[in-house]
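Escalated from tier 1: iron/sulfur cluster holo job.
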Amino acid sequence: MVKKKVGVFKFTCCSGCQVEILNQAERFLELRKKLDFKYMKILKKGKIQKFDIGFIKGAISSKEEVELAKEIREKTDYLIALGSCAVLGGISAMQNFVSAKNKRKTNYTPKDKSVPVEKYVKVEYRLRGCPITGSEFLQMINDLLAGKTLRDLETPVCNECRKNNNECLIEKGEFCAGPITYAGCKAICPENNTSCIGCRGITKDANLKEWKKKMKEKGFEEKSKEVLRIFNHEP
Ligand code: SF4
Ligand code: SF4
Ligand code: SF4
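Tier 2 regenerated the structure:
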C-alpha cells in the first residue's frame, strides 16, 4: 500500500492540538503505517513538497504566514484546518480585541491580527475544537482513507448533551453556549457539569439574538460577550 504523504503545519497557536494527536500514542503509531508524515516539526524536520493531506493548525497572523499558507495550499491535495485557531482564529485572535495601547506591551504590533485560515486559502475540511479531540482526528483520517466524504456536523452541542440525559445548565440558571455551538465533542463540558464556552464555533443556524437575550436575562450579558470574543466572534 502506498502511504499518503502528510504535512502538519504550525501557524500562530499553542501546540495543544498537535499534542492531542500524539496523545493517541499506539493508535498514532498504527496510523503511521498508512501515513507518511513528511512534515511535522514536533517529530522531524521536513521541507514543503507535494502532499496528499495537509493540516494547518493555528491562525494566520502575518504576511509570512499568508505566503506560507498559500504555498502549502498549492502543493496539497486535501487541506484541513485543524483546531479552533485555524478554523476560527481561536485564542490567538483574542489579540484582535486588544487596544493598540495595550498591544504595545505584548509581542504583537498594533497592526497584527489573527484570522482563520480560510480568509486566505480554501480548505476541504475543518476539524473543530480547542483542542481537537484525538479520537475524532483518528476517525476523520480513517474515513478519509476509506474514501468517505467528510462533512461538518451542523447540529449544536445541546443535541449531544440531551442524548446524554444531562441536566441542562441554562435551566439550572447557569451560563452555557451549547445552543449556539457546533457539536462533535459529545458535550464533554456540560457532561462534566461545566458550561460550554463555544470552542467549536457558532453554528450556521444559531439563533444568536435569542441566546444573547436569554443570557442577558439570566445576568450573563458580560460573560456571553467575553465568551464570544475568546473564539473570535463579534460580541
Ligand atoms: S485550537 Fe486550542 S489547543 Fe489547538 S492550537 Fe489553538 S489554542 Fe491550542
Ligand atoms: S447544558 Fe448547555 S449544552 Fe446541555 S442542553 Fe443545556 S444549554 Fe444545551
Ligand atoms: S462543550 Fe463546548 S466548550 Fe466544551 S468542548 Fe464542546 S464545544 Fe468546546
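Residues 13-14, 16-17, 57, 83-85, 90-91, 130-131 surround iron/sulfur cluster (ligand 1) (CB under 6 Å).
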